[in-house]
Amino acid sequence: MTQPDLPTEIDMIGRMMIALEEIEACREFVALIPEVRTNMVFAQPHAKTPDEVMAVDGRITIVNSMPLAAGRVRFGASGHMARFIIELMKTDPSVRAGIDFANPPGFSDWLSDYCTQQGWLSAMIDRRAEPADIRIAEGSSMQWKAAEAVQAAGGRVPKIICDAGGPGKEPVCIIVGSEPISVARDVCGIARAYAQSRE
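RE: above sequence
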C-alpha cells in the first residue's frame, strides 16, 4: 500500500468526517439505505487498489431511524465501492468519491427526471447483461458496472449510475464526484426531494 503524505491523509479524513456528518443529519436518507447498507468512498489521487481508498468501516446503517456510520473511516474498508471508483478514475481521474444508495421500484424514473433538472449526466446499467464469468468472479462486477456506465454515457463518467439489480444483486444507484462533502450534500438533496415528492 502506498501511504499518502500526512497532509493529504488529514485532508481526506477531515472531508470524510464532514461528509458523514451531513449524511447522519439527513433523516430522509434512511429511505435510500439499501439492505446491504451504504458505503462512501474517497480515493487517493492515482489510487490503484482498495487499500488506497478510504471508506466507512462497517458501512452506514440505520440507528434510531437515522443514518449512522457503523465504524470509523479508514483505508481499505471497502472492496466493491473502492473498485468501482478506481475503475471510473481510469476515465476521469478527478472522480475520487462516491456513495451508493437504494433504487426502490419507480425511483430510477424519478431520479432520471431529477438529474435532468439538475443538469447531471446519468446512466442506467442492465445487470442482466453482465457476463456470467464476471458475475461469479470475486471483485469483477464493479469494474464491469463502471465500464458499462462510462460506455452508456458516451465515454464520460456520469454523476449518477443506477442498476435495476439482477440475480442475487440488490438494485442500487451510485453518485460520484471529486470529493465526499459535495457528494454527501448532493445525495441528501436527492433524499429530501424524493421524500417531498412522495408526500
